[in-house]
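Help! Submission page says 'invalid entity' but I think these are all valid:
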Amino acid sequence: MALERERIAERAMYRLAEGELLEIYRLMTLIRRFEDKVAEMYTRGKITGFCHLYAGEEAIAVGAIHGLYDKDYVVSTYREHGHCLAKGASARAVMAELFGKSTGISKGRGGSMHLFDPVLRFMGGYAIVGGGLPIATGLGLAIAYRGDPEVVCCFFGDGALPQGAFHESLNMASLWKLPVIFVCENNFYGMGTLVQNAICQEELYRFADPYKIPGVRVDGMDVIEVYAAVSEAAARAREGKGPSLIEAITYRFRGHSMSDPAEYRSKREERIWQERDPIKRFRHLLLHERKIAAPVLDRIDQEESAVVDDAVKFADESPEPPLSELTKNVYVE
Amino acid sequence: MALITYREALNQALREELDRDERVFIMGEEVGYFGGAFKVTDGLIATYGEKRVRDTPISELTIVGAGVGAAMGGLRPVVELMTINFALLAIDQIVNTAAKARYMFGGQTKVPLVIRAPQGGGHQLGAQHSQSLEAYFVHCPGIRVALPATAADAKGMLKYAIRQEDPVMFLEHESLYGMKGEVPEDEDYLVPFGQAKVVREGKDVTIIAYSKTVHDALIAADLLENQGTDAEVIDLRTLNPLDIATVLESVRKTARAVVVYEGWLTGGAGAEVAAQIYQAAFDDLDAPIQRVASADVPMPYNRHLEAAALPSPDKIVRAVERIS
Ligand SMILES: Cc1ncc(C[n+]2csc(CCOP(=O)(O)OP(=O)(O)O)c2C)c(N)n1
Ligand SMILES: [Mg+2]
């Protein structure tokens, strides 16, 4: 099965125009640089609270969202900077949110774990494990109800599978044939707990079986493989055939959050996964398979670094939300 | 006596009770090898093993429900919810089972289950991770609600919680884990429930608090002293049972009361305290009771907005000034 998916991915890659490939590379690079800068700003006290970085997992957000249309919805977790940027958010708006500024994507009220942009149809980061799945199911219901050709892509971690919300959502979405793509980012750990110590069935994609929906496992370090799987699931959902479960195998390059030194992982294990760095791998592919010239990619690297620097400057110079607005928006006024 | 942190005091209480009673065991997310998200259970798995210190999947409803079942099966579980915010996933088992089983089954069973959870804001963790939810549980008959404010109480109250026979919501405050205090080393050091404590004596006004707000109240009392107001501060320690007698005794002396709590103002546990004071001591009051609590908003991330939403020593001082 893994081989077959690789072949699908290979075909998908040759279908993609050079511009698209470069866009994918650009977004993955943006996310990595953004997250590195966030870590720096966190250490400098510019960003506080809980902060969970996405470095290492970029191929999933970028690959999956490349398989969607702009009008499709995305629902995510507290580890959502990458998904939000991949859905089209500006680095400025996301950085300003982390700085708690009024120019932030959630006006400084949400912080790192609660990004939201209705225009981009980025329908929120939710910090309760499993909390996003019912929301995604409901968005799917709204689409089906309206009869629109849209889909919802819902990202969550391996840690969400033991929650009732996962099972209830898959059942309901399957029963009602809702257009939802459930994308499980299996990075082997929920905080310090290994998947096999938390879930009786380690092949997470097989949780699709009891709910009678397609379930596949993809290499989450391969952006094209993720893209191919999500495109397929999206096409199916648009045809009214219901939800899918995609398990993307990945690894977070940093600790669970900025306060976790990840002492439960061996350096050896971390090195092995660093070697599978999705950005390096994709760069290699672009250079050697698609014969894209190195300076083209180097330029993207420089441009994205500049985008992130500009975002920090913007966030730093932005105003704080006024104290007079403390109670604004508790209700629709 | 030993000078240790609130966190260490809880850890000691757990160790002593694990040693004392074989039926006691711990379960929760990351309580074993990770040592607990706030390191309260640090090192316990090395001493007691996986049977008695059990890492669970992220399944709050079933963690608590299994705790109820295990308690009905003769064990004495101490369940940790990583934070109180996740108790909302378990509230069915807390309210519909833990709190009701004994009564609903005619007194034929009991649920000696302790549910430990940290709560509170002040760390810019945003709307879903900064809540103080004690009022949810105080509202429900059948479950005890304990909120220690000091290291000594953390130890003595947790040991008492584990030894008594009813289900307990044992609510710790995230900001208190690092706070040090003198803690008795006696293995039978227990702080029974339902005993409020006068932590500062005064004659002009009674400030009634619990959990972290006790410390805010003490700071406020110092500030008030500079202005010539002599405040008495009471730490309620448990909200169920509620020691209203100690509160009334104080209020009858001072004739003024301010209730301070970190939950939302509306429908907060302090509103119940105020209501009971009015009912029993209306004629003894010289001024209306004031409440200082969190603003009725989901917690904002921005630090200035968060500070504006939370109770603080300054806000307590202003509340006292309003009735002085
Ligand atoms: C209901 C609930 N329980 C516990 C937590 C605390 N918590 C936050 S993240 C996390 C681990 C989740 O792991 P996973 O779903 O695999 O996502 P990852 O962090 O690996 O991306 C836990 C236990 C929470 N936020 N919500
Ligand atoms: Mg994980």
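Support: the input was valid. A stray whitespace character was the problem, and the output above is from the cleaned input. The domain at 2-183 of chain B is CATH 3.40.50.970 (Rossmann fold).
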